[in-house]
């Protein structure tokens, strides 16, 4: 049984005769009659009572007709969904992000996307940068706001720079070098709190690189997995930190966020997505992200 069989049954029921059904479908009358006979033979039930002058549904045919209409409607809906998905109007997107990397306009990007695509189910998944790379490859998220990819991931993922985040020194407010700008060599004797390399390898490596360029290896007092925890440890007096400036940071009376004199004291925020799973939805979201890039 195929969809055309169902269409023929519906057409005969709606038109009241095989000849009129054939004209409406632009199919030969003999073809419709043959296909209906084949259908009845296949299912073992007579769907129509036939005389030389008329054709009408049997009781079994009336019940079959109800289900045939439902099936044809479902098939039409499936085609419509597929076409709307191709146009980027429906579907699902899972967005990975990390709290230390999103800015003031991130909520507006999400709201704007939902306004433009009300039929798309949008999920936000918070995870560290390195965790996003694995989640993208595994298919657990569709796009990530993350840091520059390590080489091992670059063949499977596409990525595009969103903005450069300035790296600042986070110091107690009463530190003698506040308010800066600060030459990194002046921090050589300080204990450092660093983000974990396991979760934020790009930032960890950048901090080590900046310190080495300034002529020293940082004395690591503690590591932590997220931006807010590193800041908390600095606030607790464990050490000082070098971190990308979080655009959502709340000013505190206890800490100062001081610029550095090093010309390369910055790191990229990037959006990344699987090379083999791009879609109109992802393209639309990337356009929004580009538009809001400076404050995302």
Automatic annotation (TrEMBL):
- The identity of this protein, by name, is Transcriptional regulator, LysR family
Question: What InterPro entries would the database entry show?
Answer: LysR_HTH_N, LysR_subst-bd, WH-like_DNA-bd_sf, WH_DNA-bd_sf
Which Pfam families does this UniProt record tie to the protein? Answer: HTH_1 (PF00126), LysR_substrate (PF03466)
Q: Where would I find the HTH lysR-type domain in this sequence?
A: 1-58
Keyword flag DNA damage: no
Where do the TM regions start and end? none
Q: Name one GO molecular function term.
A: DNA-binding transcription factor activity
Its lineage reads:
Bacteria, Pseudomonadati, Acidobacteriota, Terriglobia, Terriglobales
**Family from the record:** Belongs to the LysR transcriptional regulatory family.
Keyword Nucleotide-binding present in the record's keywords: the answer is: no
Q: Which PROSITE patterns match?
A: HTH_LYSR
- Keyword terms of this UniProt record: DNA-binding, Transcription, Transcription regulation
Might you report a single GO cellular component term?
Answer: protein-DNA complex
